[in-house]
Amino acid sequence: MDKVMKSIGKSLVRSVFLFQVGELPKKPFLGTLAANFKLLKVLDLQNAPLHRLHEEVGNLFLLRFLSIRRTNVGIISKSIGKLHNLQTLDLKHSPVRELPFDISRFHKLRHLLACSRNHESNYLVDYIVGVKIHGGIGGLEELQSLWYMRTNHGLIKELENLRQSRKLGIMKLRRKHGRALCTAIEKMKYLKRLSVRASSDDEILDVQYISSPPQYLQYFELVGRLEKFPDWNLKLQNLVTLRLLGSSLTKNDPLKALQELPSLVLLVLVDAYDGEQLYFEVGRFQKLKQLRLVGLKGLNSVIIEEGALPLLELLTFEPSSQLKEVPSSIHHLRNLKTLQFVSMPEELIDRMEPKPNQGKDY
Predict the structure, then answer these.
(1) What value does the CA radius of gyration of the chain take, rounded to a whole number of Å?
(2) What confidence category does residue 275 fall into, taking pLDDT thresholds of 50, 70 and 90?
(3) What digits encode the pLDDT tens for the residues 53-78?
(4) Which of 73, 188, 200, 240 has its Cα between 20 and 30 A from that of 306?
(5) Is 311 part of any domain?
(6) pTM value?
(7) What string of DSSP letters covers 220-279?
(8) Among the listed residues 284, 292, 289, 278, the one whose alpha carbon sits nearest the alpha carbon of residue 245
(9) Is 265 inside any structural domain?
(10) Rounded distance, CA 234 to CA 240, Å?
């Protein structure tokens, strides 16, 4: 890297990528780069051992793509607010929690990616950390990806203008925001990925108010309590992945509705259902390959009819304290490759033990 730095002069280079850089030069690398590479359009610093984004980067007026993904940069300089040609700002898996400039200036912005993991949190609602945005987003009509944004009522209303959205992740949603969010989602005809996370463990996600859901939606995640499973989900003919976390549904077995989704390949239920039984009917879930059942506290019975789940390859049970025996109908799953039991009751483990003390479910 030091040799590279010495060779840098006034340059016509348009793109700079760092790959597996163990150590950056002692001289301010980004400052030197920005001072000499005035025509730079792409600056990809992913995985670099970087703790600070030099203010000089804000002078790269032609920059379209900036990534500090998986770096240790925690604070974005206000000078970045001058990059009016920026189309992609990738902050994923970095400590950045706030953008200190008015995002509404970025009229050409297409992708704002600001999702990271909060390893100090124990509960799923707070597991993903988003970014706080200043200024309005209503004028960012070219925006296609917003993943994740910490919301407020004003920003939710402005989502209606983002009709080119393909990927939307929002968090800190409150019940009162539900209707405005649904109005916005209905206008996002090209939406493929959607994640909605509540503001707290007890906050209810009120997302019933959609009559014409995005027809291309492939990935859908709801994290928070649900009083009722949204009926419009059943119209999602192209949905491949569905994740329900913390839903705590009590009245109806959610499978009765979900089994109608024709394209579903991956289903994850985490603390999503408080009932005692899950029933998989013949002819349903025709494409499902992975099923994860996590934290279903009341579950004591799983019934799989012959002909149900014909393509299932992975089945996972994680802490379900009332499930004391292996579902006897599991032998119907002819394509099953992986069966996982994680932190299950001792009674269930004993029933699976091999000889000499062979359990009943061995």
Answers:
(1) 24
(2) confident
(3) 889 999 999 999 999 999 999 999 89
(4) 240
(5) yes
(6) 0.89
(7) EEEESB-SS--GGGGG-TT--EEEEES--B-SS-THHHHTT-TT--EEEEES-B-SSEEE
(8) 292
(9) yes
(10) 13
Query: Can you give the length of the chain in residues?
Result: 362
Query: Which residue, among 282, 283, 211, 285, has the nearest Cα to 254 in the 3D structure?
Result: 285
Question: What's CA 91's distance to the chain center, in Å?
Answer: 14
Full domain range(s) for residue 270: 228-362
How far apart, in Å, are the Cα atoms of 346 and each of 341, 352, 353? Answer: 11, 10, 11
CB 218 within 8 A of CB 238: yes
* DSSP-derived secondary structure letter, 343: S
Pair type for strands 128-129 and 116-117: antiparallel
- The kind and range of the H/E element at 304 are strand 301-304
From the list 175, 167, 117, 127, the residue with the least C-alpha distance to 151 is 175
Q: Give the contacts of 96 (CB within 8 A, at least 6 positions apart).
A: 68, 73, 74, 75, 76, 114, 116, 131
Give the domain CATH number at 241. 3.80.10.10
Quote the number of domains for the chain: 1
Could you tell me which residues come within 8 angstroms of residue 239 by beta carbon, excluding any fewer than 6 positions away?
Answer: 217, 218, 219, 220, 233, 261, 263, 264
